[in-house]
Design goal:
By secondary structure, the protein is mainly alpha-helical. The protein has one domain (8-70). Helix content is 55%, strand content 0%. The chain has helices at 2-22, 27-34, 56-66, 79-86. α1 packs across α3. The two termini are 36 Å apart. The mean pLDDT is 82. Bound molecules: zinc ion. The site of zinc ion has 8 residues, from α3.
Length: 87
């Protein structure tokens, strides 16, 4: 169950980060211009810590390129008022 929660949280984090990047002018393209694969399979943008491509940033940018922004969660006003009416 913890693995499933981790997977769900990871998917939500990726979708949220991708939506943020997608909202930036040329966001995905700018990130992918830096975080692209080198001939040795590492990411060109992640030099401080050599990272196999696609790195997390490239994954977010690639997701942002193809995903629509996340829908806003409905605002639930008046839950307490609804509960009071039922009584
Ligand atoms: Zn990178």
């Amino acid at each position: 169950m913890a693995d499933r929660l981790d997977e769900t949280a990871g998917s939500l984090l990726l979708a949220t980060a991708a939506a943020f990047v997608a909202a930036q002018p040329d966001g995905p393209a700018r990130l992918l211009a830096v975080h692209h694969p080198l001939p040795n399979g590492l990411c060109a943008g992640c030099l401080a810590t050599p990272t196999r491509w696609p790195c997390g940033t490239a994954t977010i940018a690639a997701t942002a390129r193809t995903s629509a922004p996340l829908p806003r969660a409905p605002i639930r006003h008046g839950v307490a008022q609804t509960e009071r009416r039922r009584r």
